[in-house]
Amino acid sequence: MTAHPLFDIGGRTALVTGSGRGIGLALARGLAEAGCTVVLNGRDAARLDEVAAALPGDVHTAVFDVTDGASVAAGIADVEERVGPLDILVNNAGMQLRAPLLEFTDSDWHRILDTNLTSAFLVGREAARRMTRRGHGKIINICSLQSEVVRPGIAPYAATKGALKMLTKGMCADWGPHGVQVNGLGPGYIETELTRPLVEDEEFSAWVRRRTPAGRWGRTEDLVGGLLFLASAAADFIGGQVLYVDGGMTSVL
Ligand code: NDP
């Protein structure tokens, strides 16, 4: 049996920000395995080269800081010149800072906003300038279950992810009429470097398993199916939505 042609994204070119490790790396691998030309991004050139060499297919690297407008503009222009027109952009780069709000510093506030929210605006805008001109493109913003719910100690992170959900809808409103489709993918608790302190906290880790209807932490590979779907023609009439891949956690009290 073969997959339905609506799901075939072979031959497209995709950029995944923050793809040297964790969720971004799993998503980049999924896109490469689906036959896309993939561009990895991050700030560590050596790491990206190592990862690129281990992935199947046509894989390139683009080293730029997603929080810096000038670097983003130069980075996207360079990717399109070296690799070709981007069909798919995955805004994945992000960070977490855990601290009670009263102890949260001004500089940390700006850092997490820049990394999790401004980055999607900067990279999305550069990519969409080109995609809207060509009349097609898919942008997928990596949101979070914390786009919907929050716990003590992560208010700034949740604020960035909640705003990213609305930015996703706004991008859809502005760019949808020009053929660029924008959606979000909202991971639940996934084991990566970002969540390592939580995984290592046995009490918290057990709470996640209890609270998740699926009864376990998510794996980075759990996110691949949702991404490939949103990037494919099967999702062509879906816009401005966030698909939560969280084992059901966001849906239950
Ligand atoms: P990791 O910390 O494992 O990876 C984050 C990636 O982002 C790294 O590859 C890092 O690359 C990159 N990055 C960070 N800052 C920048 C920057 N300024 N410019 C370019 N790249 C940058 O995190 P995860 O894989 O866990 O998270 C990926 C995304 O998924 C994030 O947006 C996160 O908020 C979201 N998410 C994660 C969840 C989880 O449970 N893990 C749950 C919900 C959402 P480098 O530092 O090498 O440049």
Automatic annotation (TrEMBL):
What Gene3D superfamilies does the database record attribute to this sequence?
NAD(P)-binding Rossmann-like Domain
Pfam families with a match to the protein in the record: adh_short_C2
What keywords appear on the UniProt entry? Answer: Oxidoreductase
Note the superkingdom of the native organism: Bacteria
State if Protein biosynthesis is listed as a keyword: no
The record, for SMART domains, names: PKS_KR
CDD domains noted in UniProt:
Ga5DH-like_SDR_c (cd05347)
Where does the record place the Ketoreductase domain? 12-178
Tell me the protein family, please.
Belongs to the short-chain dehydrogenases/reductases (SDR) family.
Name the record gives this protein: SDR family oxidoreductase
